[in-house]
Each structure stands twice: as C-alpha cells, then as structure tokens.
Amino acid sequence: MTFGEQPAYLRVAGDLRKKIADGLLPPHTRLPSQARIREEYGVSDTVALEARKVLMAEGLVEGRSGSGTYVRERPVPRRVARSGYRPAGGATPFRQEQADGDAHGTWESRSEQAEASVAVAERLGIKPGDRVMCTRYVFREAGEAMMLSTSWEPLDLTGRTPVMLPEEGPLGGMGVVERMAAIDVVVDNVTEEVGARPGLAEELLALGGVPGHVVLVVQRTFYASGRAVETAEVVVPADRYRVAYHLPVR
User: Fold this and answer.
1) How far apart are CA 243 and CA 217, in angstroms?
2) Residue 78 region, left (φ>0) first, then alpha (ψ -120 to 50), else beta?
3) Dist CA 209 CA 214 (whole Å)
4) How many CB atoms lie within 10 A of CB 62?
5) Rg, the chain, Cα only
6) What is the pTM assigned to this prediction?
7) What's the per-residue H, E or C state across the chain?
8) What is the rounded distance in angstroms from the CA atom of residue 39 to the CA atom of residue 36?
9) Structural domains counted in the chain
10) Which residue range is the domain that position 17 belongs to?
11) Phi, psi angle pair for 218, to nearest 5°
C-alpha cells in the first residue's frame, strides 16, 4: 500500500457512507449483504465485514437480530444552548430556552451527599474524599432524554444553608449565580471545556443510544474570587445535538 492510500475496508466503508449520505441507501434500507459487498467491490469476506463494522461504529447502520444490517434514521441535529448572558429571573439556560421556544421540556433530578472523587476534587480545589452535594439530572424534550448533567458543590460552602439542595428550598431550580448570591458568595467567572468521547453504557442507556455512539461532554466550573463553587459535567448525544454558544463581546 503506497503512502496516502487507504486500506481496502476503509475505501469500501467510504463508498457505502457516500451512498447513505446521497440517499442511494435511505434510512431503513437493508445494507448489501457481506457476499454482495465482496462481489461488488472485489474484496475478501474479512474486508467486507470490517467495512460494515466501521459503519456500525459511526452509527450509520444498525444490526437487527435475524434480519441483517439496516441504515439508521439520521435525525437533524438540534441545538443545546450555552449562553454567556444571564437569563431573566435567574432561570437556568435550559429552562429559559424551553420558555423562549415554547418547548415542552422536563427534567428530573436527584441530590445526595457524596465523597469527592479525585477528578471532582481537582476541579473544585478540595481534597479527595471531602463531602460534596452531588445532583444528577435527566433533561427531556418531548419526552425524549436529550441531556444528562451531574453537578458537585462543596458542602463546606453550602452545607447547612438554604441552598444546600440545588432543586429544593426557596431558591430551588435557580441558577448557580443566584443561589450562591443568597449566601453572599459572588460568582464572577465560569469556564467550560468541550470534548467528545464514546458514551458510557449507562449514559447511552439513558439517552437511547447504542454501544459505540459518541457523546459531547461539557465540563463547567463556576468560580467566586478564584474559588470553585460548583462544577458539572453535561453529556449530550453527538448525533442528535449540537452545543451552541451565545457569548457577549463586552
């Protein structure tokens, strides 16, 4: 194989991918059989099998027990808004976006005390094992799970205060900035890091994905005078959503 030349299985996968994108193999169409791929492209069974594996890993096709491999429906990606503007009334960006778009979004949450893992402790600037309030969310749109979020707040800051439980009390459901202000903590900075990785089994189960699907991960941390007061990890399925930013220029 010369420099720059693709392996045979990638060339076959690329051609099938193009046929899917061009509509020659529309959603719910059965992918050509392994024997047909072997005959049409003049390749071995191994190459045909590897090409199919590539398309499955990319989420373009799915196997159906006893029936074969079929082209998956490709949803038009929708937007998950991340905004540098504070929504009116202190609502979280998700709640504000749902209200602005007259969408029917719902969410479920569960809070519990936990020990900070090494990764969470590093982001919050505390020691591993220190107590934190961990809140897990499932956000839904039209009944479909579309986003997961887990947040951690150090209990040496919020413990025994009215905002100890993010979704309960007089400020339950408000944003981090507003809740912290209620205990005289002025949030003045936030960082977000966006990455991608294969979804964990429990994430894909909740989001309706299949093994191998990629998720977008947003790691967000709020700061007050240099101290981290909350950190969170937001997970969305990359094949169905795009993370859109709306940031002020001054």
Assistant:
1) 10
2) beta
3) 9
4) 14
5) 23
6) 0.74
7) CCCCCCCHHHHHHHHHHHHHHCCCCCCCCECCCHHHHHHHHCCCHHHHHHHHHHHHHCCCEEEECCCEEEECCCCCCEEEEEECCCCHHHECHHHHHHHHCCCCEEEEEEEEEEECCHHHHHHHCCCCCCEEEEEEEEEEECCEEEEEEEEEEEHHHHCCCCCCCCCCCCCCCECHHHHHHCCCCCCCEEEEEEEEEECCHHHHHHHCCCCCCEEEEEEEEEEECCEEEEEEEEEEECCCEEEEEECCCC
8) 5
9) 2
10) 8-71
11) -110, 115
CATH of the domain at 53: 1.10.10.10
User: pLDDT in tens for each of the 250 residues of the chain?
Assistant: 444 578 999 999 999 999 999 999 999 999 999 899 999 999 999 999 999 999 988 878 988 888 889 998 877 777 777 765 455 555 555 555 555 545 567 889 999 999 999 999 999 999 999 999 999 999 998 888 999 999 999 999 999 999 999 999 889 989 999 999 999 999 999 999 999 999 999 999 999 877 778 899 999 999 999 999 999 999 999 988 888 888 877 7
- Amino acid code (one letter) for 30: R
Assigned token pair, 91: 């609502």
Q: Do residues 51 and 85 both lie within one domain?
A: no
Q: Examine the domain organization and report whether 52 and 148 are in the same domain.
A: no
**Do residues 235 and 119 both lie within one domain?**
yes
